[in-house]
Design brief:
There is one protein chain. About 45% of the residues lie in helices and about 10% in strands. It has 6 helices and 3 strands. The chain has a 3-stranded antiparallel beta sheet with strand order 1-2-3.
Protein backbone atom coordinates (compact mmCIF):
# COMPACT_ATOMS: atom_id res chain seq x y z
CA UNK A 1 0.00 0.00 0.00
CA UNK A 2 1.42 3.37 -0.93
CA UNK A 3 1.09 6.36 1.34
CA UNK A 4 0.09 8.82 -1.43
CA UNK A 5 -3.37 8.97 0.16
CA UNK A 6 -1.73 10.88 3.02
CA UNK A 7 -1.07 13.77 0.66
CA UNK A 8 -4.77 13.95 -0.28
CA UNK A 9 -6.34 13.31 3.15
CA UNK A 10 -8.62 16.13 4.43
CA UNK A 11 -6.69 16.19 7.73
CA UNK A 12 -3.35 16.93 6.03
CA UNK A 13 -1.75 19.89 7.77
CA UNK A 14 -4.33 20.10 10.56
CA UNK A 15 -3.32 20.00 14.21
CA UNK A 16 -5.00 18.35 17.19
CA UNK A 17 -5.32 14.78 15.94
CA UNK A 18 -2.62 13.40 18.25
CA UNK A 19 -2.32 15.62 21.33
CA UNK A 20 0.79 15.52 23.46
CA UNK A 21 0.63 13.27 26.51
CA UNK A 22 1.37 16.39 28.55
CA UNK A 23 -1.97 17.90 27.48
CA UNK A 24 -4.28 15.22 28.87
CA UNK A 25 -4.56 12.60 31.61
CA UNK A 26 -7.96 10.94 31.23
CA UNK A 27 -10.13 9.76 28.36
CA UNK A 28 -12.46 12.66 29.14
CA UNK A 29 -9.55 15.09 28.66
CA UNK A 30 -8.70 13.41 25.36
CA UNK A 31 -12.32 13.71 24.20
CA UNK A 32 -12.40 17.39 25.14
CA UNK A 33 -9.24 18.02 23.10
CA UNK A 34 -9.94 15.86 20.05
CA UNK A 35 -13.67 15.62 19.44
CA UNK A 36 -13.75 19.09 17.83
CA UNK A 37 -11.33 17.80 15.14
CA UNK A 38 -13.24 14.56 14.50
CA UNK A 39 -15.59 16.05 11.85
CA UNK A 40 -12.58 16.51 9.53
CA UNK A 41 -12.75 12.72 9.03
CA UNK A 42 -16.36 12.91 7.84
CA UNK A 43 -15.76 13.43 4.13
CA UNK A 44 -12.51 11.42 4.13
CA UNK A 45 -12.43 8.51 1.67
CA UNK A 46 -9.27 7.13 3.33
CA UNK A 47 -10.56 6.11 6.78
CA UNK A 48 -9.83 2.40 6.24
CA UNK A 49 -6.30 3.19 4.99
CA UNK A 50 -5.77 5.47 7.98
CA UNK A 51 -6.70 2.73 10.45
CA UNK A 52 -4.55 0.21 8.56
CA UNK A 53 -1.58 2.60 8.64
CA UNK A 54 -1.92 3.79 12.25
CA UNK A 55 -2.89 0.35 13.64
CA UNK A 56 -4.44 1.99 16.72
CA UNK A 57 -5.06 -1.18 18.75
CA UNK A 58 -1.62 -2.63 18.21
CA UNK A 59 0.11 0.73 18.82
CA UNK A 60 -2.09 1.60 21.82
CA UNK A 61 -2.74 4.82 19.91
CA UNK A 62 -4.16 7.97 21.49
CA UNK A 63 -5.79 10.37 19.05
CA UNK A 64 -7.92 10.46 15.91
CA UNK A 65 -7.62 7.90 13.14
CA UNK A 66 -10.19 6.72 10.64
CA UNK A 67 -13.15 8.71 11.93
CA UNK A 68 -12.69 7.42 15.47
CA UNK A 69 -11.08 8.78 18.62
CA UNK A 70 -8.78 6.20 20.18
CA UNK A 71 -7.53 6.09 23.76
CA UNK A 72 -4.92 3.48 24.51
CA UNK A 73 -5.90 1.66 21.32
CA UNK A 74 -9.63 1.50 22.04
CA UNK A 75 -12.19 3.58 20.14
CA UNK A 76 -13.93 5.85 22.65
CA UNK A 77 -15.83 8.09 20.21
CA UNK A 78 -16.68 7.95 16.53
CA UNK A 79 -18.49 9.78 13.79
CA UNK A 80 -22.05 8.62 13.23
CA UNK A 81 -21.25 7.31 9.76
CA UNK A 82 -18.27 5.04 10.52
CA UNK A 83 -18.53 1.59 8.96
CA UNK A 84 -17.43 -1.80 10.23
CA UNK A 85 -15.77 -2.53 6.88
CA UNK A 86 -13.25 0.23 7.62
CA UNK A 87 -11.82 -2.09 10.27
CA UNK A 88 -9.68 -5.16 9.59
CA UNK A 89 -11.10 -8.67 9.25
CA UNK A 90 -11.84 -10.38 12.56
CA UNK A 91 -9.44 -13.03 13.82
CA UNK A 92 -10.83 -16.21 15.31
CA UNK A 93 -10.32 -16.11 19.07
CA UNK A 94 -11.19 -18.43 21.93
CA UNK A 95 -13.65 -15.77 23.13
CA UNK A 96 -15.59 -15.78 19.83
CA UNK A 97 -19.30 -16.39 20.24
CA UNK A 98 -19.49 -14.32 23.42
CA UNK A 99 -20.08 -10.70 24.31
CA UNK A 100 -16.47 -10.59 25.53
CA UNK A 101 -15.42 -11.78 22.08
CA UNK A 102 -17.08 -8.73 20.50
CA UNK A 103 -15.14 -6.51 22.89
CA UNK A 104 -11.93 -8.33 21.94
CA UNK A 105 -12.58 -7.67 18.25
CA UNK A 106 -13.16 -3.97 18.92
CA UNK A 107 -10.09 -3.77 21.13
CA UNK A 108 -8.04 -5.07 18.18
CA UNK A 109 -9.65 -2.65 15.67
CA UNK A 110 -11.38 -5.52 13.91
CA UNK A 111 -14.86 -6.08 12.59
CA UNK A 112 -17.04 -8.06 14.97
CA UNK A 113 -17.46 -11.64 13.71
CA UNK A 114 -21.04 -12.90 13.16
CA UNK A 115 -21.03 -15.25 16.19
CA UNK A 116 -19.85 -12.47 18.52
CA UNK A 117 -22.39 -10.03 17.04
CA UNK A 118 -25.16 -12.58 17.68
CA UNK A 119 -23.99 -13.14 21.26
CA UNK A 120 -23.92 -9.37 21.81
CA UNK A 121 -27.48 -8.99 20.43
CA UNK A 122 -28.77 -11.81 22.63
CA UNK A 123 -27.12 -10.39 25.74
CA UNK A 124 -28.49 -6.93 24.97
CA UNK A 125 -32.00 -8.39 24.60
CA UNK A 126 -31.66 -10.20 27.96
CA UNK A 127 -30.53 -6.99 29.67
CA UNK A 128 -33.41 -5.05 28.11
CA UNK A 129 -35.87 -7.70 29.25
CA UNK A 130 -34.42 -7.65 32.79
CA UNK A 131 -34.68 -3.85 32.93
CA UNK A 132 -38.28 -4.00 31.76
CA UNK A 133 -39.11 -6.38 34.61
CA UNK A 134 -37.38 -4.34 37.33
CA UNK A 135 -39.92 -1.49 37.58
CA UNK A 136 -42.77 -4.03 37.85
CA UNK A 137 -40.91 -5.81 40.64
CA UNK A 138 -40.37 -2.54 42.50
CA UNK A 139 -44.03 -1.60 42.16
CA UNK A 140 -45.06 -4.96 43.61
CA UNK A 141 -42.65 -4.49 46.54
CA UNK A 142 -44.13 -1.07 47.31
CA UNK A 143 -47.67 -2.41 47.05
CA UNK A 144 -47.04 -5.09 49.66
CA UNK A 145 -45.54 -2.77 52.27
Amino acid sequence: MTADWLLRAPCRGLDGFTPSEDDWETAADLKRLCVPQLPACGPCPFRAECIATVKPAQALFDGIAGGRLWCNGTAIAALDDVFEDELTEPKLRSSCGTEAGAKDHRRHSERVCPSCAQAEREMSARRKEARAKQPQQLQLDFATT
